Amino acid sequence: MNKQSFIKGTMILLAAGIINRLLGFIPRIALPRIIGPEGVGIYQLGYPFFIVLITIIAGGIPLAIAKMVAEAEGAGNADHSKFILKTSLTLTVTAGVLFMVLSLMLAPWVTGVLLPDARVYHTFVSMTPMMIIIAVSAVYRGYFQGKQNMIPSAASSIIETIARIVCMLWFAYLLMPKGLAFGAAGAMLGTVVGELLGMLVLLWQYGRQEKRRSETAAKPSGIPTVQDAAPEAEMPLNNRNILKRLLGIAVPVTGGKMVGSVSYLLESIITARSLAIAGIATSVATAQYGALQGMIIPLLLLPGAITMSLAVALVPSLSEAAARNDRATIHKRMNQAVRLTFVAGAPFAVIMYVLAEPLCLLMYDNTEISGMLKIMAPFALFIYVQAPLQAALQALDRPGRALMNTLFGASVKLGLILYLSSNPAFGIKGAVIAIIVNSMAVTLLHGFSVSRLIGYRVKFMDLVKTAAVMIIMGAGLLFGYRHLPFAAIPWLQFVLAAAGGTLLYLVIIFMAKLVTPRDLVRVPLIGKWFSRFS
């Protein structure tokens, strides 16, 4: 198995993430045309409760496994890594089976009492098998990431996305004649099939690794290995010790994720109830919530492929550096992650703000929802940089700090939703404002915590340069869109304007030295070409 560097591992995950995000917009575009915004709302309403259960089952497990395996590999103890994998599988599969059975038993009560629309029942039941599937996948993803081999996770996610797209749209189309509730359930069944295939890819990758390992071990060698000389002398394999260490890392991380998951669940319930208080009918409220969570938020989070890739690759890298007390490497990795997040996320934020209406028309054939996107786009960078900062706190053994920051932000968000969305003057835009305030508050708190912990500071001039480049790009983008002679072909006008604005952005960030050819030398594939200019 090949271990990748931080940059290479990030780029592998980034490539997979970008592919997944782009492919993911196929159902985002097509599904509303099959089941409508109200059907998307039914589909989305089932997710928050499910996310809470998945967080309980495996919320902090991948990060804990990645951290423990990275430490074991750093100590040259490969057998310990395998033991961690087996212990983790036992824990998560047991939890997955338990919660799946409980969910099936309690499905009528959950969808009829807790959730604001009883039509969610079929979607809720359809998603329950994913609890076991995702539990298994989470363990193997953490294992491979701990070995700093991001290829299995990337391959699995791409296969899962492709299968999910095909099955989601196909099943939704087949079941839609039975009604909106069945159409949404069909889309969820497609998601289950995608997750299943993604898990099978991970298992296949692990099987290949073990086969190669067995073949290598079978070859005779005259040189005694570390295991031959001192089998498990330093670290005895013990289920109780492994489980204690695993839970010690996973529980605080799970707690942090639980805040977000429970917040997401309460957000869906409180938003619907608040819109009802404002005098909005249930079907309309479901459609508005579906537009926000199923159409606008995914569009806003398109650059999240970058931030999540950085966050995943950052954990084992920082864990290794922290174990060596290598402060210089920690600062270097943080600087790379934060700078790449700002530089990569900025053009997306500008395009979504300046061209919000044509973008929503092109993607969803709906301009009424563009107002929500225009409000949120200027604050997108806070959302993008949050993941690397949180990953840093977790990798540096401060998950409790991340938990408290997230809890504070969630409390503020839910309070604002209840106050603003129940006011007819705000309606669904009250939820939009609350999400913005939450993302800003949590990101700033995470940044302050990281700064206090390791003395890291974001370079002020980099922020000033990024803001200036965004303003220049926005002006060029708007000018190009208004003056291009393709008004009769809206999609072509949008694509050309966005391409021109992005090209302008790339030129300026090199001129401003936010990115240099030397930075690109470490990028796989294209690095050798840029090395001549570094």
Can you describe what's shown?
By secondary structure, this protein is an all-alpha fold. The chain has 21 helices and no strands. It has helices spanning 6-58, 61-74, 78-114, 121-127, 130-146, 151-175, 180-218, 226-229, 239-277, 282-300, 304-323, 327-354, 356-364, 370-376, 380-395, 399-421, 428-454, 460-483, 490-511, 517-520, 527-531. Helix 1 (6-58) packs antiparallel against helix 10 (282-300). The longest helix has 53 residues, at 6-58. The relative contact order is 0.11.
Give helix % range: over 70%
Q: Major sheet: size, sense and barrel closure?
A: none
Strand content: under 5%
Tell me the quaternary state.
single chain
C-alpha Rg (nearest Å): 24 Å
General shape: globular
> In angstroms, what separates the terminal alpha carbons?
31 Å
Which structural class best describes the helix and strand composition? mainly alpha
Q: Average the pLDDT over all residues and give the rounded result.
A: 80
Q: Would you spell out the secondary-structure blueprint of this structure?
A:
Layout (H helix, E strand, L loop, with lengths): L5 H53 L2 H14 L3 H37 L6 H7 L2 H17 L4 H25 L4 H39 L7 H4 L9 H39 L4 H19 L3 H20 L3 H28 L1 H9 L5 H7 L3 H16 L3 H23 L6 H27 L5 H24 L6 H22 L5 H4 L6 H5 L3
Helix pairs in contact: 1-3, 1-4, 1-5, 1-6, 1-7, 1-9, 1-10, 1-11, 2-3, 2-5, 2-9, 2-11, 3-5, 3-9, 4-7, 5-7, 6-7, 9-10, 9-16, 10-14, 11-12, 11-15, 12-15, 12-18, 13-14, 15-16, 15-17, 16-17, 18-19
